[in-house]
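pinned: reference chain
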Amino acid sequence: KRIRIETAEVTHDESSSGTHGYIWSTGNKILVGTGKGTISIWKLGIEGKKMTDAGSFLRGHQNIIGTTLI
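pinned: its structure tokens
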């Protein structure tokens, strides 16, 4: 399934850039490594479902943590 991202922020802190596409979380944020920084996702949803904040999404989809986007 596809994930739609509605609200996110790009950071350029290379110390927390992680592996390209690797997903982890901190607090109520979902983070995705880019190799040159990090994308902090605040609001997202699965294709065909309503958008939700990252904290709520994580409560229902904990298995996304530790996976890699392709």
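why pinned: The mean pLDDT is 88. The beta strands are 3-11, 23-26, 29-33, 38-46, 52-53.
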